[in-house]
Amino acid sequence: MKELFKNKKFVILWLAQAASGLGSTFATFTLAWLVYEMTGSKVAMGSVWVSFMLPNIIIQLFAGPFLDRWDRKKVMIFSEWSRAATFLILFIFLSLNLVQAWQLFIVSIAIGIAQPIFYPASMAYVADILPKEKLIKGNSLLEGTGQVMMLLGPTLGGLLISFFGIEAVLLILIISLGASGALLMKNPSSKKRRIEKKESWYFQFKEGLQFYRVYPVLLGVGLMMMLINFSSGAAQPMFLPYITDELGGTAFQYGLFTSAFSFGMLAGTLLTGTLKEPKNRKRVMLGALFLNGVLFLGLAWTPFYWLALVISFGQGLFAIIFNINNTTLYQRRVPEHLRGRVFSVRILLAQAGIPFGAALGGLFAQIFSIPILFTVLGCLIALTTIVCWFIPIFQKLNDQDVVNLETNEGAEKI
To answer: Which CDD domains match (predicted)?
Structure first.
């Protein structure tokens, strides 16, 4: 690890990514707080998530194949400074008491366009500045720092709002994103890459889609995740009104609740890293999702804030256990030359349900209530995993094969 800190270019990237992580966490927190404070509407909370997620999904889906053709350093700087400029305009309008609710949706769309290109470019840039033997340690440090920012950000944001107001959070996130871009200016541009053949996005996406016909269990997992993420998309915008209205909490308690989920993810990462790879991946993946659904039922009806914290921690724990095993599933089964294309389809499948969930969840909570919404979502997740357990195709989650697309003759043993 000491060698990493002797690498000036990596240290700059590490600091820039830490600042970006804090700024991104503050951005999500600030927009949610402002929208609910100005409107008090659960429908508006869901709608602002839709306005963020739709451009986010589209940019991730279409930009991926082209990031290799652009200067990654410039891509990262553009992402940071465009977000900083957007929030600076919001800060000025807020200081002049000119902010209206519709403007927050414009901000959300702008952030949804700029944010998703930073991390793919950052992860690719690491390979430009570190030798291969140091990539694992470098990625571990960057990922660990990101988790720390996710832990600290919401709690710190809630604390700042409670004592200094929303303007303080906005100012810090503007400085964080601006400083991140300024730091990256000190690093060299990414290495020039020679592209033998420029294939269209459509061609690459179509080739990735064809893989799911050869290995349909991945399509099954993707469709299952679409439904699960529909539930997550419906729930996440409602966490702020859930804490403040249902449990009578403060901004600080909302931040702590969000951090509890991140802390659960960190604990799940450590747990998964210390245990051996499961022999029965089907049991682990579907079991983790089922327990997540059960915890939603507990979240729906608990009158105690401290218990909601524990449940949030548990949801983060089981969510990351599923995600790690799902990622491993793809890495084991997708040939290296197709991973980028298959992952583009995976993004579409996994995230397509989120904006629809956010839109319908806010409307449902407005008409009925948040506890009833969480009850429905918990039952939906639990029932989905039970149904998937009895579908024969999901038994292939335990296969240890890599599909051989070149010969198209089944699978090749690892």
So the answer is: MFS_MefA_like
